[in-house]
Design brief:
This protein is of the alpha+beta class. Helices cover about 40% and strands about 20% of the residues. It holds the Pfam family Asparaginase_II. This is L-asparaginase II.
């Protein structure tokens, strides 16, 4: 395993922490044009798979058939943080489609964001399946399964036709043999897939460049899902979170996943990047992604500035005094 420093943290001028990882960038010609560490590193997508897992939902026109808003449809690719606007969107999806919360496999929990979580606890309200960050994805697959006359009780099992469709669609978009994809179980109970990092970047490239997708139905589904992601960026994660801040830029398609995986692609530049922080931390993401954009000369400075508001370069202590800094530690060198 070849790892390199991605982000370093200094306190009082002394190196205190290093986040090691791997990173790669691919072009629309299918070439790895940037590599830090080993671009062949096998990586589980975790929630970075959600735009691909939403493709069957888009193919069944669930949003159009049930009159969903853009913010509601975006929930099918979301890792939502349990804010009021997320829960209202999910409850509206259930009301419009007739799906029930008890049909969800994901376990009852509290929201990821502190404010809604603590508010519920203060009011002695119980956890709910709907608060799980993957509940939108689950509702989408349930709706698609019902629309197609497929079993809904087993919608999460690897052998289910929709899960098999997701697997084969991802393999096609990643240009990676389906029988070489490693399949595990995600936190929410869905099948999740491990591929070389460069193959994940290749799949993300096609979210930005859908004309590269061979299947017309998949191409149209991707275009619609990306449109929803751009129309409602706060649905995908929440305000002041990297995914939503990147998606405010309609030139970027982005999504992160648990245990440090982050992916994004640039529409005009026709490139895509995937990275994995090997210690599983999400804190380095904004610093690393901002550095990538700076190093390639990305023109939208406002997007880069937003990333540094999510995780600032400065490290402050509990008294809000600057005591250190975070730095990107890698240089993008062309292959």
């Amino acid at each position: 395993m070849k790892l390199e420093p991605l982000v370093e943290e200094y306190r009082g001028g002394v190196l205190e922490n290093v986040h090691l990882g791997v990173l790669c960038g691919v072009s629309d010609q299918g070439d790895v044009i940037y590599e830090v560490g080993d671009a062949e590193h096998m990586t589980f997508l975790r929630s970075a798979a959600k735009p691909f897992q939403a493709i069957p939902v888009m193919k069944q026109n669930i949003a159009e058939k049930y009159g969903l808003t853009d913010a509601e449809a975006a929930m099918f690719a979301a890792s939502h943080r349990g804010e009021t606007y997320h829960i209202e969107a999910l409850e509206s999806i259930m009301a419009k489609t007739g799906l029930k919360e008890e049909q969800l496999l994901c376990c009852p929990t509290y929201p990821l964001n502190d404010e809604p979580k603590f508010a519920l606890m203060r009011e002695n309200k119980p956890p709910r399946k709907l608060y799980h960050n993957c509940s939108g994805k689950h509702l989408g697959i349930l709706a698609a399964a019902r629309e197609m006359g497929l079993p809904t009780e087993t919608y999460w099992q690897p052998s289910h036709p929709l899960q098999q469709d997701i697997l084969h669609t991802l393999a096609d978009m990643a240009e990676y043999p389906v029988d070489q994809i490693k399949v595990g179980v995600d936190g929410c109970g869905f099948p999740i897939f491990a591929l070389p990092l460069k193959s994940i970047a290749t799949a993300y490239l096609k979210l930005a460049c859908p004309e590269l997708i061979r299947d017309a139905g998949t191409r149209e589904a991707v275009q619609r899902m990306v449109r929803y992601m751009h129309a409602a960026p706060d649905s995908i994660a929440s305000h002041q979170f990297i995914c939503s801040e990147l998606l405010r830029d309609d030139n970027i398609v982005a999504k992160g996943g648990a245990k440090g995986v982050y992916c994004f692609s640039l529409i005009r530049e026709r490139v895509a990047f995937a990275l994995k922080v090997i210690d599983g931390s999400e804190t380095p993401w904004p610093i690393a992604v901002a550095s990538i954009l700076e190093q390639i000369g990305y023109s939208n400075q406002a997007t880069i500035d937003r990333l540094y508001t999510v995780v600032p370069k400065e490290i402050k202590n509990d008294n809000h005094i600057v005591v250190g800094e975070r730095r990107a530690a890698f240089t993008l060198a062309g292959k």
